[in-house]
Amino acid sequence: MAGFRSLARQVRDSRCDLALRRYSLRKCLERFAPYGHRATWDHLCSRAGFGPEDRSPDPARLVAALDELEEARAVWLAYEVEFAERRRKEKHLGLRRPGAVDDWHRLTWGGFGVAWCDDPRVHPREPLAEVLRRLIAALEREPGAECPVCGGDRLPWKYELDHEPSSGPVCADCGILVPRPVLTPEALAYARRGRLLMSA
Fold first, then answer.
1. What domain of life is recorded for the organism (predicted)?
2. pLDDT digits over 102-111, tens only?
3. 55: Cβ–Cβ under 8 A, 6 or more apart, which residues?
Protein backbone atom coordinates (compact mmCIF):
# COMPACT_ATOMS: atom_id res chain seq x y z
CA MET A 1 0.00 0.00 0.00
CA ALA A 2 1.51 3.33 -1.10
CA GLY A 3 2.17 5.99 1.52
CA PHE A 4 1.30 9.67 1.36
CA ARG A 5 4.69 10.76 0.03
CA SER A 6 4.83 8.23 -2.80
CA LEU A 7 1.27 9.14 -3.81
CA ALA A 8 2.24 12.82 -3.76
CA ARG A 9 5.17 12.05 -6.08
CA GLN A 10 2.74 10.46 -8.55
CA VAL A 11 0.51 13.55 -8.47
CA ARG A 12 3.53 15.69 -9.39
CA ASP A 13 4.98 13.31 -11.99
CA SER A 14 4.18 14.76 -15.41
CA ARG A 15 5.07 11.40 -16.99
CA CYS A 16 2.09 9.79 -15.28
CA ASP A 17 -1.29 9.57 -16.92
CA LEU A 18 -3.62 12.39 -15.79
CA ALA A 19 -6.17 9.88 -14.49
CA LEU A 20 -3.49 8.27 -12.30
CA ARG A 21 -2.40 11.67 -11.00
CA ARG A 22 -6.00 12.55 -10.02
CA TYR A 23 -6.49 9.08 -8.49
CA SER A 24 -3.27 9.48 -6.49
CA LEU A 25 -4.47 12.79 -5.08
CA ARG A 26 -7.73 11.13 -4.01
CA LYS A 27 -5.72 8.30 -2.41
CA CYS A 28 -3.71 10.88 -0.43
CA LEU A 29 -6.98 11.64 1.38
CA GLU A 30 -7.04 8.09 2.73
CA ARG A 31 -3.85 9.04 4.63
CA PHE A 32 -4.75 12.61 5.60
CA ALA A 33 -8.17 14.27 5.36
CA PRO A 34 -8.85 16.87 8.07
CA TYR A 35 -12.53 17.32 7.15
CA GLY A 36 -13.07 13.67 6.24
CA HIS A 37 -12.51 12.27 2.75
CA ARG A 38 -15.44 13.78 0.86
CA ALA A 39 -15.41 17.22 2.49
CA THR A 40 -11.62 17.54 2.15
CA TRP A 41 -11.88 16.59 -1.53
CA ASP A 42 -14.64 19.16 -2.09
CA HIS A 43 -12.54 21.79 -0.30
CA LEU A 44 -9.39 21.08 -2.33
CA CYS A 45 -11.29 21.09 -5.61
CA SER A 46 -13.03 24.39 -4.90
CA ARG A 47 -9.80 26.06 -3.72
CA ALA A 48 -7.77 24.76 -6.70
CA GLY A 49 -10.48 25.56 -9.24
CA PHE A 50 -11.66 22.23 -10.61
CA GLY A 51 -14.84 20.26 -10.10
CA PRO A 52 -15.02 17.25 -7.76
CA GLU A 53 -16.24 15.12 -10.68
CA ASP A 54 -13.80 16.59 -13.24
CA ARG A 55 -11.94 13.57 -14.67
CA SER A 56 -9.44 15.69 -16.62
CA PRO A 57 -8.45 18.62 -14.41
CA ASP A 58 -5.56 20.89 -15.30
CA PRO A 59 -2.44 19.17 -13.88
CA ALA A 60 -1.28 22.48 -12.38
CA ARG A 61 -4.55 22.63 -10.41
CA LEU A 62 -3.99 19.09 -9.12
CA VAL A 63 -0.55 20.11 -7.90
CA ALA A 64 -1.98 23.27 -6.28
CA ALA A 65 -4.48 21.10 -4.38
CA LEU A 66 -1.66 18.77 -3.33
CA ASP A 67 0.46 21.73 -2.18
CA GLU A 68 -2.35 22.87 0.12
CA LEU A 69 -2.85 19.36 1.47
CA GLU A 70 0.88 18.88 2.10
CA GLU A 71 1.20 22.19 3.95
CA ALA A 72 -1.71 21.23 6.22
CA ARG A 73 -0.24 17.78 6.79
CA ALA A 74 3.09 19.32 7.83
CA VAL A 75 1.25 21.50 10.38
CA TRP A 76 -0.60 18.49 11.79
CA LEU A 77 2.43 16.19 11.89
CA ALA A 78 4.40 18.84 13.80
CA TYR A 79 1.54 19.04 16.31
CA GLU A 80 1.50 15.25 16.69
CA VAL A 81 5.25 15.22 17.39
CA GLU A 82 4.78 17.88 20.10
CA PHE A 83 1.76 16.02 21.48
CA ALA A 84 3.67 12.72 21.71
CA GLU A 85 6.61 14.46 23.40
CA ARG A 86 4.30 16.09 25.96
CA ARG A 87 2.63 12.76 26.76
CA ARG A 88 6.04 11.10 27.13
CA LYS A 89 7.11 13.76 29.63
CA GLU A 90 3.82 13.49 31.52
CA LYS A 91 4.17 9.73 31.81
CA HIS A 92 7.73 10.13 33.03
CA LEU A 93 6.37 12.42 35.77
CA GLY A 94 3.77 9.81 36.70
CA LEU A 95 0.79 11.52 35.02
CA ARG A 96 -0.69 8.43 33.42
CA ARG A 97 -4.33 9.46 33.18
CA PRO A 98 -5.07 11.14 29.85
CA GLY A 99 -7.17 14.31 29.73
CA ALA A 100 -10.01 15.38 27.44
CA VAL A 101 -7.64 16.58 24.71
CA ASP A 102 -5.84 13.23 24.83
CA ASP A 103 -9.13 11.34 24.47
CA TRP A 104 -10.10 13.50 21.49
CA HIS A 105 -6.63 13.21 19.96
CA ARG A 106 -6.75 9.42 20.04
CA LEU A 107 -9.76 9.53 17.69
CA THR A 108 -7.96 11.77 15.18
CA TRP A 109 -4.48 10.25 15.11
CA GLY A 110 -2.96 10.78 11.69
CA GLY A 111 -5.16 13.77 10.94
CA PHE A 112 -8.29 12.07 9.65
CA GLY A 113 -11.39 14.02 10.62
CA VAL A 114 -9.61 16.47 12.93
CA ALA A 115 -12.08 19.14 11.86
CA TRP A 116 -14.80 16.73 10.70
CA CYS A 117 -17.44 18.16 8.34
CA ASP A 118 -20.43 15.85 8.16
CA ASP A 119 -21.89 17.68 5.15
CA PRO A 120 -19.14 17.40 2.50
CA ARG A 121 -20.30 20.64 0.86
CA VAL A 122 -20.08 22.72 4.05
CA HIS A 123 -16.53 23.33 5.28
CA PRO A 124 -14.24 26.26 6.09
CA ARG A 125 -13.10 28.40 3.17
CA GLU A 126 -9.66 29.21 4.55
CA PRO A 127 -6.58 27.17 3.57
CA LEU A 128 -6.41 23.84 5.39
CA ALA A 129 -3.15 24.75 7.12
CA GLU A 130 -4.70 27.91 8.59
CA VAL A 131 -7.73 25.97 9.82
CA LEU A 132 -5.47 23.45 11.55
CA ARG A 133 -3.33 26.20 13.10
CA ARG A 134 -6.47 27.76 14.60
CA LEU A 135 -7.68 24.40 15.86
CA ILE A 136 -4.31 23.54 17.43
CA ALA A 137 -4.13 26.98 19.08
CA ALA A 138 -7.58 26.36 20.59
CA LEU A 139 -6.49 22.94 21.90
CA GLU A 140 -3.52 24.58 23.62
CA ARG A 141 -5.44 27.33 25.45
CA GLU A 142 -8.30 27.47 27.90
CA PRO A 143 -11.68 26.32 26.54
CA GLY A 144 -14.01 28.95 25.09
CA ALA A 145 -17.56 29.32 23.80
CA GLU A 146 -16.97 29.77 20.06
CA CYS A 147 -15.89 27.76 17.05
CA PRO A 148 -12.07 27.75 17.08
CA VAL A 149 -11.94 27.94 13.28
CA CYS A 150 -14.35 30.74 12.35
CA GLY A 151 -15.34 32.27 15.69
CA GLY A 152 -19.02 31.42 15.15
CA ASP A 153 -21.17 31.03 18.23
CA ARG A 154 -24.00 28.98 16.71
CA LEU A 155 -23.02 25.45 17.72
CA PRO A 156 -26.13 23.23 17.65
CA TRP A 157 -25.70 19.69 18.92
CA LYS A 158 -26.03 17.18 16.07
CA TYR A 159 -26.64 13.46 16.32
CA GLU A 160 -25.94 10.50 14.02
CA LEU A 161 -22.82 12.01 12.52
CA ASP A 162 -20.82 9.79 10.18
CA HIS A 163 -17.84 10.04 12.54
CA GLU A 164 -16.63 9.18 16.02
CA PRO A 165 -17.88 10.75 18.22
CA SER A 166 -21.20 10.39 16.44
CA SER A 167 -22.70 13.45 18.13
CA GLY A 168 -21.46 16.83 19.19
CA PRO A 169 -21.51 20.58 18.59
CA VAL A 170 -21.37 21.44 14.89
CA CYS A 171 -20.58 24.99 13.82
CA ALA A 172 -23.53 26.36 11.85
CA ASP A 173 -21.17 28.74 10.01
CA CYS A 174 -18.18 26.65 8.86
CA GLY A 175 -19.58 23.14 9.34
CA ILE A 176 -16.91 21.55 11.54
CA LEU A 177 -17.63 19.23 14.42
CA VAL A 178 -16.11 21.35 17.17
CA PRO A 179 -13.82 19.28 19.41
CA ARG A 180 -15.39 19.11 22.86
CA PRO A 181 -12.11 19.93 24.69
CA VAL A 182 -12.02 23.44 23.15
CA LEU A 183 -15.44 24.35 24.60
CA THR A 184 -16.35 25.20 28.18
CA PRO A 185 -18.85 22.96 30.01
CA GLU A 186 -21.33 25.85 29.76
CA ALA A 187 -20.90 26.11 25.98
CA LEU A 188 -21.39 22.35 25.63
CA ALA A 189 -24.53 22.47 27.79
CA TYR A 190 -25.86 25.39 25.75
CA ALA A 191 -25.23 23.51 22.50
CA ARG A 192 -27.17 20.51 23.84
CA ARG A 193 -30.08 22.68 25.00
CA GLY A 194 -30.14 24.53 21.68
CA ARG A 195 -30.62 21.24 19.85
CA LEU A 196 -33.52 20.31 22.13
CA LEU A 197 -35.15 23.72 21.67
CA MET A 198 -34.94 23.46 17.88
CA SER A 199 -36.58 20.03 17.88
CA ALA A 200 -39.46 21.14 20.13
1. Bacteria
2. 777 777 777 8
3. 19, 22
